TrEMBL record:
Residues 339-691 form the Glutaminase A central domain. InterPro entries: 6-hairpin_glycosidase_sf, Glutaminase_GtaA, GtaA_central, GtaA_N. Keywords: Signal. Residues 108-332 form the Glutaminase A N-terminal domain. SUPFAM superfamilies: Six-hairpin glycosidases. The keyword rRNA processing does not apply. GO terms for biological process: carbohydrate metabolic process. This is Glutaminase. Residues 1-21 form the signal peptide.
Length: 704
């Protein structure tokens, strides 16, 4: 006993020290913090830092979403001592690591607070979400603000250093590096470094990084002090700053392991003092669609890196103020809809969901009245505008910007209207390799006709009801009728085909597809004013539920496959029926399925199907929302799903951008709660399903 007491006396101080040295995570420690996330390629280079690296942030490298370590560093000098703040894995002599005190994320900001000598320094990584302001939303820039505040009565001299390298342009192999760079000073105060690759083709990727864009790093004089800048080998440039607190302005030709760098002297700091940098990635053109180049919407006003730097930094204050409103609204509305854990989930999901989209206009006309949205199926297969990816993405758009639903369906519908795709069902995607939206003239695409038809019709009705727009669906009345008729002919007893969960393989008579088809027929009937389609959708729902074609014999749950009575899974396809108040199925069907989930809950959640040991977060939260159907109102099951996703998100096991697929039952190699296969995907927009029940277009920002 005496030895045990001695052991505790020795151990407790160590535990207390570990707790005191650990950063405070607000609201939780996420799998990965988004840093620069604005489009499918500014959510690639240097976009993220794993949550479990934050305690050693000064030496932690920023990461490409697939795990490549990339270069983005921040150093400060406080009085005569240099401190690494972020992204300096090999600091060299004379550099101390700052102490990380706090890490916080909101819908638009990731903020890290550090102590460096006699100063508190905050790094604020900000990617704006402004759906109603298309110029701001598509501006391919994110911001880094470094804020220094003296501790107590100290008045330290402080300067700030930051750099990026060729990894921002997808050029990883130093041995074959070809690039050009340029530095400009605009109006005596705005500095722009641009770095562009050479010897590459448009619309090409290497390891998912775009190869034809220009990386831009922008700065502006702060505290009435000029920026200094340098280009050169990373060791030399950083050593120059560490020794002198400034950069000598040396500009040399690019060398291997080179960087472009800024330093900003803040002078003697007596109160909070900030300097803001903008980092961007410009692709011109952005998308190749149906034989034409598509420019980003931003190019209508700014087509050069220099113009973009001025525009981005000029807009920073207004964009930042707007973002604070958005952060507050998303957090508070989500908490009202599903509690604090739910708010944590959707807050982390917002930048990731919007960061998978490009907003474009015709490159030849730059007509801002004809806007198209293209979505990259990041991480899984890189398709363009995959219909069964846009479907789970849609709840965030319904809540924040319903018009985007139309803008992302429009490219697919224009292509389908040309009859190049000669099948009576919707094409699975608009191109197999982003950013080439070239369609499938050869007729080969993933075979999921019922899934694709149902998703398109339901999304079209979702947009129409959210906005009141009846004219747009009328433009494609003939196409919609074709796809509805295909559901009439094939949507109940489905032939062997894939569903959205294509990794489960090809199966006939899938209950989930029949449910989705019935809901879509009802939606189409209401959208088109043809009640016979709605009547048929409801009749099929009766067949599936009341006549037990899609349930077990004693009606405890929907099956996965007709006749396989012991099969079961998440019946997420009921969600849109609830959201849009279609009443295809009776409340008893929602109630039956909702009540079943507790009985099949595994170690960390309800699996997707009986045959899997993993689940998907988007479908879990679709199911959580369905549990709140009128007359069901099962908060216990809703909260069960929310808590399971929250535990997965915050368990510290998954240092990747928010994955939507994870183990709910541990195995011999991985514990329950471990991510599987996917990361940084658009489908986290589906996490907004519970909030979507409170209505469309909920976010209202000043000036929008």
């Amino acid at each position: 006993m005496e030895l045990f007491i001695i052991f505790l006396a020795f151990l407790l101080p160590l535990l207390q020290q570990a707790v005191l040295c650990s950063p405070l995570y607000t609201p939780v420690q996420p799998p990965s913090y988004p840093l620069a996330v604005k489009n499918p390629y500014l959510s690639d280079p240097t976009a993220w830092v794993p949550g479990n690296w934050v305690k050693t942030l000064p030496s932690a490298s920023a990461q490409f979403w697939n795990g490549l370590n990339l270069t983005w560093s921040v150093i400060a000098r406080v009085d005569d001592q240099a401190y690494s703040l972020f992204g300096v894995p090999a600091p060299g002599s004379g550099v101390e690591a700052a102490v990380v005190d706090k890490a916080e994320y909101t819908a638009t900001h990731s903020t890290f607070t550090l102590t460096a000598g006699q100063a508190t320094i905050v790094l604020d990584f900000f990617s704006q979400i402004s759906p109603a302001n298309l110029t701001r939303q598509i501006a391919p820039y994110s911001y880094l603000t470094v804020s220094a505040t003296p501790i107590a009565t100290a008045t330290p001299n402080i300067s700030v250093y930051t750099d990026i390298d060729n990894s921002w342009i997808g050029q990883i192999n130093e041995g074959t590096l070809q690039l050009s760079w340029r530095w400009s000073l605009i109006d005596g105060s705005t500095a722009a470094f641009s770095v562009r690759p050479g010897g590459v083709d448009q619309y090409t990727e290497v390891q998912d990084t775009a190869q034809w864009g220009t990386a831009v790093y922008c700065g502006r004089n702060a505290a009435n002090m000029p920026l200094s800048r340098a280009v050169g080998a990373v060791e030399d440039v950083r050593a120059n700053y560490v020794a002198n607190g400034t950069l000598a302005g040396s500009i040399s030709k690019w060398v291997a392991h080179g960087v472009v760098a800024y330093s900003q002297d803040l002078g003697k700091v007596t109160g909070p003092t900030n300097v803001t940098f903008a980092v961007g990635y410009l692709r011109s053109p952005a998308i190749y669609y149906d034989g034409k180049a598509q420019a980003t919407y931003f190019e209508a006003t700014c087509s050069t890196p220099e113009c973009g730097c001025v525009a981005a930094l000029d807009d920073f204050a207004a964009a930042d103020a707007e973002s604070r409103q958005l952060d507050t609204q998303i957090s508070s509305k989500a908490e009202d809809a599903g509690g604090a854990n739910y708010s944590d989930i959707v807050t982390l999901s917002a930048r990731q969901a919007f960061g998978t989209m490009d907003i474009t206009i015709d490159n030849s006309t730059l007509d801002t009245n004809d806007v198209l949205v293209f979505v990259k199926e990041i991480s899984s297969d890189g398709n363009v505008n995959t219909i069964d990816v846009m479907y789970p993405l849609s709840p965030i758009l319904y809540v924040m910007a319903p018009e985007y639903i139309r803008m992302m369906l429009e490219p697919n519908l224009r292509y389908l209207a040309k009859n190049i795709w000669r099948y009576p069902f919707v094409m699975h995607d608009l191109g197999s390799a982003y950013p080439n939206a070239t369609g499938h003239e050869d007729g080969h695409a993933e075979y999921m006709p019922i899934e694709s038809n149902s998703d398109l019709l339901t999304l079209a009705y979702m947009y129409s009801t959210a906005t009141g727009d009846k004219q747009w669906p009328a433009q494609y009345a003939s196409l919609f009728r074709t796809y509805a008729d295909d559901l009439v002919n094939h949507g109940l007893y489905t032939e062997s085909q894939l569903s959205s969960d294509d990794f489960l393989g090809v199966t006939a008579n899938q209950t989930g597809l029949a449910v989705k088809s019935a809901v879509a027929l009802n939606a189409y009937g209401l959208m088109s004013g043809q009640s016979n389609y709605s009547d048929l959708g409801r009749q099929r729902a009766k067949t599936l539920y009341e006549d037990k074609l899609g349930t077990d014999s004693v009606q405890t749950h929907f099956t996965c496959v007709f006749g396989e009575e012991d099969s079961w899974g998440l019946q997420y396809n009921l969600f849109q029926d609830v959201l849009l108040n279609l009443q295809t199925f009776p409340k008893e069907a929602y109630e039956m399925q909702t009540n079943y989930y507790h009985s099949v809950h595994m170690e960390a959640g309800v699996p997707l199907t009986k045959s899997t040991q993993w689940s998907k977060t988007d479908w879990m939260l679709f199911s959580a929302a369905t549990a709140m159907a009128p007359g069901v109102d099962n908060k216990t099951v809703r909260d069960m799903f929310i808590d399971d996703v929250h535990t997965f998100m915050s368990n510290g096991l998954n240092p990747v951008p928010f994955s939507d697929k994870f183990l709910v039952q541990g195995n011999s190699t991985s514990p329950a709660g471990t991510w599987v296969d996917f990361r940084n995907r658009p489908v986290v927009g589906g996490h907004f399903a519970v909030l979507a029940l409170d209505g469309a277009n909920q976010i209202k920002l000043d000036g929008n």
